[in-house]
Design a protein that fits this description.
GO terms for molecular function: glycogenin glucosyltransferase activity; metal ion binding. One of its GO terms (cellular component) is cytoplasm. The strands form 3 sheets. The protein has a 7-stranded mixed sheet, with helices on both faces. Strands 5-9 form a two-stranded antiparallel sheet. With 690 residues, the protein is α/β, with parallel strands linked by helices. It has helices at 19-31, 49-56, 148-159, 168-176, 198-204, 219-222, 232-248, 255-260, 262-266, 451-454, 496-506, 587-606, 682-689; strands spanning 6-13, 37-42, 61-64, 99-105, 109-111, 125-129, 137-144, 181-182, 210-212, 308-312, 320-324. β1, α1 (19-31) and β2 form a beta-alpha-beta unit. α1 crosses α7. The two termini are 109 Å apart. Among the domains are: 6-246, Alpha-Beta Complex (Spore Coat Polysaccharide Biosynthesis Protein SpsA, Chain A), CATH 3.90.550.10; 272-381, no CATH class; 450-472 and 488-506 and 513-556, no CATH class. The structure holds uridine-5'-diphosphate-glucose and manganese (II) ion. Manganese (II) ion binds next to loops.
Length: 690
């Protein structure tokens, strides 16, 4: 753990592919004699354990941080650097509060001299100008004071993808704007293959502290022979390789370095020469190397057919490392016995141990076809077998789980956001505070509750309106027989404000409200004002005594009849013209009259002497001599019936003709010619019955 307020050099490793850079940087600082500690921020999801192990040999602090990915990386492609999708992770530097000051250096920088003096700067943030746009700073070297204010501001920007170049340099320049302490360019010299200002370089060359290999190509991805010239860039690349060779070039004089350098070589173009442990010695045919090459050794990757090997560094990295081993100087090795077969151990699975007694393959794929009897390429891939657990013990949860992350942050709102809604109803203003009491808490209460609430309300007290007293207790005592003392009142019946409110609502309809006064009545006329207490018992119904008796048959509702006629004043239907009144209508007499009339007509038509005798016929069985009890023979008031033609009661009626009505009947002959209307609707029948 870092001591309080320590100064530290820090770099960032987002992928194994920058491992050579990170290690060369650390060694360059150490070699330059810095007294400060070295820290490396790593993203554990994209850096392999083998790389971390390698870092531990050089760095004092390995600090895992959350990877911050730019979710809107469009601007990155403007500079063709999609591989910089996660450089926002640099933001995590600002929350390393365990350090007083940090000199951050990209993993693609190399120190010519250690710039320890930068720790003494009073400024919170310092950086050197960028060669592409000198008004802004380059973020390959920054002197910063960790603080959470900048951290949260930068994090918020990063999460929104705010950066003009899609990476950290655009983001940090947008945040700090011109508020940065501008460092000399000598602290972050960024030469390129196209560097043109040679006189300046020569003039300031001796004061250069740090060189930074900006751009897609890095010294370790181009190989040691790529820049052998004398340009400023070539010279800078040479400085990098000098540090590399001091620590990682094989054969190393330092045995500890030799044991752990394989992974670095793997990510350094031209430096990887895998060792292949023996897997079998006799069961496979052997390969005899050509005589001419028997004294040299060239290790090759056995899984590919030629010597240009491309490895994907990590699943999360899109950086490719190319090894052109065919161009590399061959390493002298002991001659490999001809009977030895080899196997490949991928360096990412661990750093293979190089033991002097291990013997090597001698087939050079660049010069000869594969041995005729060799095994398939992938036959020696390592295989791991996993077995299902046969442990019968049920799973037991551990006693405690790891603590939640400490760096989670949530600000509890200081003032509650809840606001009481504005009252709508009048009673809301003086509403009693709600309380919650359980019945068992109240069992020892002997005092009955508020009489107005718990007992049957008596006659209303016509008192001057008392001041509003809020209901103090809403907890009734549970009686032995709850039905006896059950109140039909409501709490709000006793609150005058509610009475007034409902009264106002009902004002326009006051006249039609049925208010029952009387003994035992609990209702009070809402119109009965005059300074009296107005109580409206909405839920109280009148007792049986109070209720007026209802008519057995309710009076029918009179409506316009279906003939469309108006009612007369009494609401009766208008009298039909020519229709005798009910009292005057005796159906038996009418039948007789009809029959007789018909006979008369027939007699006139056919003559007395026609020879046709109209037979007499009795009335249908049971209807002889039937006279309506209410019948009183009267002269019809209207109609065509003649009084003279009416027979006296009891007269024998001649039998009717069954020829029925026919054209022989003249138009105006006096017999019943109107048809009986359809029976009326129920309403009309109601009217008729009364
Ligand atoms: O696959 C990767 C990519 C980047 N890095 C780290 O991120 C840094 C920035 O990437 P780099 O390739 O060095 O970017 P530059 O080519 O230097 O590009 C410029 O633009 C970058 C994005 O704005 C800035 O981070 C640099 O400081 C600036 O010099 C590296 O040094 C590493 O520390 C990795 O570890 N792995
Ligand atoms: Mn860089």
């Amino acid at each position: 753990m870092a001591s309080e307020g320590e100064d530290v050099y820090a770099t960032l490793l987002l992928s194994d592919s920058y491992l050579p850079g990170a290690l060369v940087l650390a060694h360059s600082l150490r070699d330059a004699g810095t007294t400060k500690k070295l820290a490396v921020l790593i993203t554990a999801d994209t850096v392999s354990p083998a790389a971390i192990t390698q870092l531990q040999s050089t760095y004092d602090y390995i600090i895992p941080v959350e990877r911050i990915v730019n979710e809107a990386p469009a601007n990155l492609f403007l500079m063709n650097r999609g591989d910089l999708h996660s450089t926002f992770t640099k933001v995590n530097l600002w929350k390393q509060l365990q350090f007083r000051k940090i000199i951050y250096m990209d993993a693609d920088t190399v120190a010519i001299r250690a710039p320890d003096e930068l720790f003494s700067l009073p400024h919170a943030f310092s950086a050197a100008p960028d060669i592409g746009w000198p008004d802004i700073f380059n973020t390959g070297l920054m002197v910063l004071t960790p603080n959470m204010g900048d951290y949260y501001a930068l994090l918020a920007m990063a999460q929104r993808g705010i950066s003009f170049d899609g990476a950290d340099q655009g983001l940090l320049n947008m945040h700090f704007k011109n508020a940065f302490n501008r460092l000399s360019f000598t602290y972050n010299v960024t030469p390129s293959a196209h560097y043109q200002y040679l006189p300046a370089y020569r003039h300031f060359q001796s004061s250069i502290s740090v060189v930074h290999f900006i751009g897609h190509d890095k010294p370790w991805t181009e190989g040691r022979d790529a820049h052998k010239g004398g340009t400023p860039y070539d010279e800078s690349v040479g400085r990098w390789w000098a540090v590399y060779d001091r620590h990682f070039k094989e054969p190393s004089t330092d045995s500890s370095v030799q044991e752990t350098s394989t992974l670095v070589q793997y990510y350094t173009k031209g430096e990887f020469h895998p060792v292949m442990p023996v897997v079998s010695s006799s069961s496979y045919p052997t390969y005899q190397p050509p005589e001419s090459r028997s004294e040299t050794y060239q290790a090759v990757h056995p899984t590919v057919g030629d010597q240009n090997v491309i490895f994907h560094a990590t699943p999360a990295s899109d950086t490719e490392i190319t090894h052109a081993t065919a161009e590399q100087p061959r390493h002298e090795r002991t001659e490999v016995p001809s009977h030895v077969e080899t196997a490949y151990v991928p360096p990412t699975l661990g750093v293979p141990e190089v033991k002097p007694e291990i013997q090597y393959s001698i087939w050079d794929a660049s010069r000869a076809p594969p041995p005729a009897d060799s095994r398939p390429e992938a036959s020696n891939f390592p295989a791991t077998h996993y077995q299902m657990s046969s442990d019968p013990e049920p799973f037991k949860a551990p006693e405690r789980y790891p603590d939640p992350p400490k760096n989670m942050w949530y600000e509890v709102p200081k003032t509650p956001t809840y606001q009481k809604p504005t009252p709508i109803f009048p009673w809301e203003k003086d509403a009693p505070k709600p309380t919650r009491v359980f019945p068992e808490d109240e069992l020892d209460v002997t005092e009955p509750p508020s009489s107005e609430l718990a007992t049957e309300p008596g006659p209303p007290e016509m008192e001057p309106e008392p001041p509003v007293t809020p209901v103090t207790s809403t907890i009734p005592v549970i009686p032995s027989d709850p039905w006896q003392s059950y109140s039909r009142g409501n709490a709000w019946d006793d609150i005058p404000e509610i009475g007034r409110y409902v009264g106002n609502l009902q004002k326009p309809r006051k006249g039609s409200v049925q208010i029952v006064h009387g003994q035992g009545s609990s209702s009070v006329d809402v119109s009965d004002l005059g300074g009296r207490k107005r109580i409206l018992r909405l839920t109280d119904f009148p007792t049986e005594l109070e209720r007026p008796s209802l008519p057995v048959t309710p009076a029918p509702i009179r409506r316009p009849n279906f003939w469309g006629g108006e009612r007369n004043e009494e609401g009766e239907l208008p009298a039909a013209e020519g229709v005798p009144s009910q009292e005057e209508w005796d159906p038996a007499v009418q039948l007789e009259q009809l029959a007789r009339r018909q006979s008369d007509v027939l007699a006139q038509k056919f003559g007395e002497d026609s020879g046709h005798e109209i037979p007499t016929r009795s009335l249908p069985y049971g209807s002889e001599g039937v006279v309506s009890p209410s019948y009183e023979a009267k002269a019809p008031t209207r109609g065509s019936g003649s009084a003279a033609s009416e027979p006296a009661p009891g007269t024998v009626i001649p039998p009717p003709s069954y020829k029925g009505p026919s054209p022989v009947f003249d138009k105006d002959e006096s017999f019943l010619s109107h048809s009986t209307p359809e029976p009326g609707t129920e309403e009309e029948l109601d009217v008729l019955q009364t």
